[in-house]
Design brief:
Number of domains: 2
Transmembrane segments: 6-29, 41-65, 71-95, 233-251
Keywords: Membrane, Transmembrane, Transmembrane helix
Pfam families: Tetraspanin
Protein name: Tetraspanin-2
Strand content: under 5%
Subcellular location: Membrane
Oligomer: single chain
Length: 272
């Protein structure tokens, strides 16, 4: 195996290592309750990570056994995967740029408004009534609100000062603060005599299978959760993408050098 192929093999081993955190981020995202319910967003990162793993392995084999055709195919596929990862990263940043959260006086946690998120995210995830009906049923079957409701005896002032309530729990497991409901426990509230005109106030139910799953606040909380998780995953993708672009550029140079070495050997054999 020539020097250039040695370099290519090492670079492909490095790109293979880059696939591991991308796959890990994809598995982490797909394991979250919101991503389990929003199936559209579960697989892109995981699928790209697995394809990157396979392509890197093919490049490593091609370099180790000096299969130039396999290396050329590897570089072509790697270019496509890098572009797809870059497109996914740009899309994730664009659609999660808008933050629907807002602070509520006297509350440590935030609440969320649906109209403050990007139109693409709203339309794709919660735009269809049938689609939201399936997501709603999935959320109701999850343990998102059950975990919040475990603290049945937590006092109101302590609950209001709890900062670690997720956007999904804030939107789906309790009524919006503007409704003026009286606190009993995190998932049971007393209706006020004159609720505000916010439609979500009339959709709230103390029935644990209903809660605020039909509310716009729940849709906004779901998008808030997705935004928070994808922003974390984007950090991993950025680091991996920078390394992959660097590996690809050097890999192309090493492939050209390997081709030159092969031509030189053939030319030398022709003279001897």
């Amino acid at each position: 195996m020539g020097v250039s192929n040695n370099i290519t093999a090492c670079l492909n081993f490095l790109s293979l290592l880059c696939a591991i955190p991308i796959i890990s981020a994809g598995v982490w995202l797909s394991s979250k309750p919101d991503n389990e319910c929003v199936r559209l967003l579960r697989w892109p990162l995981l699928l790209l990570g697995l394809l990157l793993l396979l392509v890197s392995l093919a490049g490593f084999v091609g370099a180790f056994w000096n299969r130039q055709g396999l290396l050329a195919l590897h570089l072509f596929c790697m270019a496509i995967l890098v572009l797809l990862l870059l497109a996914l990263l740009v899309l994730a940043f664009v659609v999660t740029r808008d933050d629907g959260s807002y602070a509520v006086p006297g509350r440590a946690y935030k609440e969320y408004r649906l109209d403050r998120y990007s139109a693409w995210l709203r339309g794709t995830v919660v735009g269809s009534a049938a689609h939201w009906g399936r997501i709603r049923a999935c959320l109701a079957d999850s343990d998102v609100c059950a975990k919040l409701g475990q603290n049945n005896y937590i006092p109101a002032d302590q609950f209001f000062m709890t900062p670690n309530i997720s956007p999904l729990q804030s939107g789906c497991c309790k009524p919006p603060t503007v409704c003026g409901f009286g606190y009993v426990n995190p998932t049971v509230w007393v209706n006020p005599a004159n609720p505000t005109a916010d439609p979500d106030c009339y959709l709230w139910s103390n029935e644990q299978s209903q809660l605020c799953y039909g509310c716009n606040a729940c849709k906004a909380g779901l998008l808030g959760n997705l935004r928070k998780e994808w922003r974390k995953a984007n950090v991993i993708v950025i680091v991996a993408l920078v390394v992959l672009i660097w590996v690809y550029i050097i890999g192309c140079s090493a492939f050209k050098n390997a081709q030159t070495e092969e031509l030189f050997r053939r030319y030398k054999r022709g003279w001897t």
